[in-house]
């Protein structure tokens, strides 16, 4: 008797589909039988002979022209013009190693992917124009940037995205690297960063790391490991923001860093500007130099002079506040001047129109907890004449634990003239203990305050 008759049908009630009647769904059985066709080779009309490039290794698969042609225009063309029942394919070693997985996907539409297999599988999907798999693997890489791997994988995926022109994947990798740069420095993949990626990172102001000194030391290590040409070294050294390094550390680097000693001539103008920056009042400096250039623009530094971590336990419970101090500015001239900041976190801030109205009989309109959204406000505790020529850009970093590692999930930037950001945690689930935004039921924030100096505008005569 028919095998289908022995298996209970998956039934959907009438109205579940566009046509009338009950739908009997045995699609999974069909998929299993297609997969068995590949495994057993029954009815095969073509042998795929997969030869590994630069090797004698050969794998043979008994396949079916109809299935391959349905999934791939490239296979359709190859099969149409073949001269025998055997089709020989030459693949690099990494692609040959996963070819069986790739062919199985063609039969059953399912594939189990490991981190190191993503690129070779994507190469095969691209070569044979299996578009759904191509798209699925790009999504997989975007979603698994934070996954743990022995030697790291994000740098490799970035270089691959650049090679194939996948802009979305490239930008996702670049953002992940920029937000988690300290972790990348400590991993094995820092040495595999290309010169182009290195220079792209060095030019960004949104890097999250402990300090500019940490960046310089990582750059020294990269140069020592990769031994690039002199022009690459000079361009990289000129992208370091020396004005963001305290003078005592700059003095030490000038005397103790073999790299700076060797290339001192190439960056002496930047060091000279940095020392002037640290010795003079920023207002005085702004009369003669353009202080809006990258040399005087901070990145997102996590060290204590620039902000404060803030762990909020049970963040949906009630409003919280805290105070912290930062240096007025990165200039050594401002080293002893502190600004006190007040931060307010509200889990369910409500606009006036939705707040409860109180009368002598109590609340007429009770606020529903799901009406509000999280809000964070950062304000200076006092105004001061010292603020002249300086505005403060605030950044809130949200850290999460992904697959055992604490990583940056979101970064919220405040416009320089405002005290809060309108989209703060707008999509976040803070209600459930297992939320992607929480670590052990707590919200892990780090508030960074970046002083931005302004060039003085000369009055027209």
Automatic annotation (TrEMBL):
PANTHER family per record: BTB_POZ DOMAIN-CONTAINING PROTEIN 17 (PTHR24410:SF12), HL07962P-RELATED (PTHR24410)
Annotated organism of origin: Lepisosteus oculatus (Spotted gar)
Signal peptide (UniProt feature, chain positions): none
Domain BTB: 44-115
PROSITE patterns assigned to the protein according to its UniProt record, in alphabetical order: BTB (PS50097)
Protein name: BTB domain containing 17
Source species, domain of life: Eukaryota
Pfam family, one: TRAF_BTBD17
């Amino acid at each position: 008797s028919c095998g289908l008759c022995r298996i209970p049908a998956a039934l959907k009630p009438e109205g579940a589909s566009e046509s009338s009647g009950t739908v009997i769904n045995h699609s999974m059985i069909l998929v299993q039988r297609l997969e068995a066709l590949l495994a057993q080779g029954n009815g095969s009309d073509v042998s795929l002979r997969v030869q590994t490039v630069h090797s004698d290794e050969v794998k043979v698969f008994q396949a079916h022209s109809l299935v391959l042609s349905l999934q791939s225009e490239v296979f359709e063309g190859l099969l149409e013009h073949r001269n025998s029942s055997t089709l020989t394919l030459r693949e690099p070693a990494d692609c040959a190693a996963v070819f069986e997985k790739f062919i199985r996907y063609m039969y059953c539409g399912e594939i189990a992917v490991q981190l190191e297999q993503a690129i070779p599988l994507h190469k095969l999907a691209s070569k044979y124009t299996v578009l759904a798999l191509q798209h699925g693997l790009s999504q997989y890489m975007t979603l698994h940037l934070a996954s743990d791997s022995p030697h790291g994988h994000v740098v490799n995926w970035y270089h691959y995205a650049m090679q194939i022109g996948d802009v979305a994947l490239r930008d996702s990798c670049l953002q992940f690297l920029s937000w988690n740069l300290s972790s990348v420095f400590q991993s094995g993949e820092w040495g595999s960063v290309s010169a182009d990626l290195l220079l792209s990172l060095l030019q960004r102001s949104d890097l999250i790391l402990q300090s500019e000194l940490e960046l310089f030391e990582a750059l020294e290590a990269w140069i020592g490991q990769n031994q690039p040409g002199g022009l690459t070294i000079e361009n990289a050294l000129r992208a370091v923001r020396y004005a963001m390094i305290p003078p005592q550390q700059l003095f030490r680097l000038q005397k103790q860093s073999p790299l700076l000693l060797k290339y001192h001539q190439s960056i002496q103008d930047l060091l000279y500007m940095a020392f002037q920056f640290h010795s003079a009042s920023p207002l005085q400096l702004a009369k003669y130099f353009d202080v809006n250039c990258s040399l005087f623009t901070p990145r997102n530094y996590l060290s204590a002079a620039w902000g404060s971590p803030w762990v909020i336990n049970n963040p949906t419970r009630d409003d919280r506040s805290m105070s912290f101090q930062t240096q007025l500015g990165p200039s050594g001239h401002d080293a002893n001047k502190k600004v006190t900041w007040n931060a307010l976190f509200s889990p369910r801030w409500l606009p006036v129109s939705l707040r409860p109205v109180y009368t002598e009989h109590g609340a007429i309109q009770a606020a529903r907890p799901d009406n509000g959204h999280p809000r964070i406000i950062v304000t200076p505790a006092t105004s001061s004449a010292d603020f002249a020529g300086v505005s403060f850009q605030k950044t809130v970093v949200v850290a999460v634990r992904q697959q055992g590692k604490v990583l940056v999930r979101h970064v919220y930037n405040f416009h320089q003239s405002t005290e809060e950001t309108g989209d703060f945690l707008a999509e976040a689930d803070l209600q459930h203990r297992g939320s992607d935004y929480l670590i052990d039921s707590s919200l892990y924030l780090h508030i960074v305050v970046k002083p931005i100096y302004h060039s003085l505008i000369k009055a027209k005569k």
